[in-house]
Amino acid sequence: MPYKNPSRKSCEQTIKRILTREFEEYGENHHFKQASDFMIYFESLHPASPGLTKQVQRAVNALNLPRDENGYFMINKTVEEYKAEQELSQLLLSSSLINLEPCTPVLLKTEVWKRRHIIHLMHSTPELQTLFETMLETDDGILIYTKNPEKLISFFSDFIKSDSCDKN
User: Fold this and answer.
1) Which of 2, 117, 136, 161 has its CA 20 to 30 A from that of 38?
2) 146 with 103: CB under 8 angstroms?
């Protein structure tokens, strides 16, 4: 009686277990790039045959695993997640992170129709550019992150009625 090869589903489960174990032990895969790399494991359980090789190849193809930059299979991400991560990586190449922890948020309450123009003017005025790190529109006005809240509030106080500016 001829020996029956494992099903494709069974091969997929075994491949997932192998890659999961690899990821758990080493944090990444440095051994498995193609279906033939799994054959030693399958041949230790089943007789070597062209049918077994085809089942393993079908299982690898069905899993549709992403590959890292060196061509190794990745078990901890889907193809879509990996593509999104790569795209994000490309977009962030010329970016930088700024820690806003030393900044004080100041809310400039103003009407909706004024907000974008105020932001534009603040970005266009060299004197004001030194008073803020970043700003964004909110439901109530413009949230400004500054390292110099006193100077920023003082600047705006010259234009805003003194009783409406809360210096706390």
Assistant:
1) 2
2) yes
